[in-house]
Amino acid sequence: MMFEEDWTTLPRAYVALSHDYSYEDRDKDLAATTAWCLALANGDARLVGIQTGHKDDLDDEPLLAAFVAEGAKVYTDSRGKVGALPSGPVLMYRPHAAHLWEVETKRSTAAVAAYEITGPEHHQRSIGTEEMVGCQPWVTAFKPIHLGGPTIKVKEPILPDPVVAAAMDTFTDLINSSSGLSDSRDRSTVLDGLTKLRKANHHFDPEDLLAGALARNWRGDAAVQLKDLAAEINAGKRKRFAERFRPDIVDTWRKEV
What we know:
Largest sheet: 6 strands, parallel
Shape: elongated
Number of strands: 6
Helix content: 40-55%
Structural class: alpha/beta
Distance between the termini: 23 Å
Order of helices and strands: EHEHHEEHEHHEHHHHH
Number of helices: 11
């Protein structure tokens, strides 16, 4: 991972979905999003891509349809997956959080604008689900420009426990993010480290680990795999792995902070 190009400084922006769906500034915010993308494409709409679920979405959004008429290219989901994307800016129209992680895995675009994403407050107010945080890890990791809608709170610090943060720095130095955590050694590194942290009474929120990984330049798929492994450890699932750290590694992380 240390040898990969740093993608944490990629220009990013977002508009958050209204909490109560009464969104008077919706057209204004969509116009601001298209303008942001166009500015990063030096005014050439042909360099901008629109990632959306269906081309039918354009029928409900005259501003997007007009943008396509100017030359912007439409990229639709393939069975829920993000396919090819432009090398220039991409406007993600109402993406799921999973789509953001896919874009952060591909690393093929010059900028990302996410229109109408959700955060924890949206899920709590509209759905009554407290454990869902939506796209907050992405916002926390990259602090994208806020173009409209409610502000999604950035968690500071990303990892409240500094010992966990020190462990994350070690993971980052050791694993190869480009291959996710498919390599058994990288997977064991993460599992061994997280297990030792838990046994030493250091707690971690999987969503915070996701944000921390993205902020440390992990690819999206590797960051999601880290989150999923952390959730399984928190749930008490026994995972098989090879020990990669000496028994006193947590003491070392404590000394670092």
